[in-house]
Amino acid sequence: MPGLTTFTPFPEDVPTHPLLVIDYQLVKAGDAAEVEKLWKAATELGFWYLKNHGVDEQVNAMFDMGRETMALPLEEKMRFEQGDEGFSFGYRAAGMQFMDERGTPDVTEFINVSKDDALAWPDTVHRTYPSTVNARMESTIKPFVQKSLAINHFLIDVLSDTLGLPKGALSALHKVEEHSGCTARVIRSPPHEGLQTKLFLTAHTDFGSLSFLHNRLGGLQVLPPGSDKWFYVKPLPGHAICNIGDALNIFSGGILRSNIHRVVPPPGEQAQHERWSLVFFTRPNDAVELRALSDKSSVIADAIAKASPGKYEPGVTAGQWLARRVGSQRRVHYKGPESWRERQGTEDTPIPSGGYV
């Protein structure tokens, strides 16, 4: 698969939204200024670039796994399709998900590999996978999962400390040895030339705690707080993009921002290429109750005192939250505009459908 630098460059005349650049090695070393910058990114936009993460080799191998998997015959891939009941692991074919109030089908396909299955290999925890996935489970997927977990867990611990929580409070909700919706996903979007769709992935917030994203082309857009206009995020070689998800937003009483974003076709001449992306989603353990941790932190308690009653008490577990959001996206469940509203997460305002840049 061609590297990022072999593609048509990202256009210089396309409006982008700047992200703070966080140096992972400085955060690991306890650099106070870098930790403060991480806190600023996590509480204001909820997105940031992460450099010096040391996962580039595993990222390249994961893209190879994705390419091999997507090249399989559709009939073979469909043997491992997720299904319509909120099960998030396995293959997801194009056209299975709706993207707007009108029920427009999506055009992307992806493979989701469970953290639990990767770490338990060759045993099976949740499901089996295509042969191309199995062939790389030990050499490619497991190392990527392990490194992604280590990075995300460390960042979550840093944010936990800054929230004034007891040491390890958030880690206790993300135990590696317990079942969770943590997922490694490789996504393929077709070249945009000739397609009618304006979206590859509809506007949404992420379901879990922290996402660790690697892009090959432009297409990711964010909706800055207080804005009704979408802006591209420019992919930078060697930099991952991290963002806060719904679970950390809820645990923190809204202090950590789970921001709305979407994926559209790459800008300019980049649209002639297939778009590949890779993401690792860190999510709480399935049995963890989603609720603000106001009883463990005065900082969170102060935030809850200013929030609408019950806003950060959805009354479900992390597993139930994930199943609802995954299952409600399937086209078979589309009944009309109300289905669009039922699939949403922690968004404070209605998701705009326009505002293309």
Automatic annotation (TrEMBL):
<keyword id="KW-0408">Iron</keyword>
<protein>
    <submittedName>
        <fullName>Clavaminate synthase-like protein</fullName>
    </submittedName>
</protein>
<dbReference type="GO" id="GO:0046872">
    <property type="term" value="F:metal ion binding"/>
</dbReference>
<dbReference type="Pfam" id="PF03171">
    <property type="entry name" value="2OG-FeII_Oxy"/>
</dbReference>
<dbReference type="InterPro" id="IPR044861">
    <property type="entry name" value="IPNS-like_FE2OG_OXY"/>
</dbReference>
<feature type="compositionally biased region" description="Basic and acidic residues">
    <location>
        <begin position="335"/>
        <end position="346"/>
    </location>
</feature>
<dbReference type="InterPro" id="IPR026992">
    <property type="entry name" value="DIOX_N"/>
</dbReference>
<dbReference type="Pfam" id="PF14226">
    <property type="entry name" value="DIOX_N"/>
</dbReference>
<feature type="region of interest" description="Disordered">
    <location>
        <begin position="333"/>
        <end position="357"/>
    </location>
</feature>
<dbReference type="GO" id="GO:0016491">
    <property type="term" value="F:oxidoreductase activity"/>
</dbReference>
<keyword id="KW-0479">Metal-binding</keyword>
<keyword id="KW-0560">Oxidoreductase</keyword>
<dbReference type="InterPro" id="IPR027443">
    <property type="entry name" value="IPNS-like_sf"/>
</dbReference>
<comment type="similarity">
    <text>Belongs to the iron/ascorbate-dependent oxidoreductase family.</text>
</comment>
<dbReference type="InterPro" id="IPR005123">
    <property type="entry name" value="Oxoglu/Fe-dep_dioxygenase_dom"/>
</dbReference>
<dbReference type="InterPro" id="IPR050231">
    <property type="entry name" value="Iron_ascorbate_oxido_reductase"/>
</dbReference>
<feature type="domain" description="Fe2OG dioxygenase">
    <location>
        <begin position="178"/>
        <end position="284"/>
    </location>
</feature>
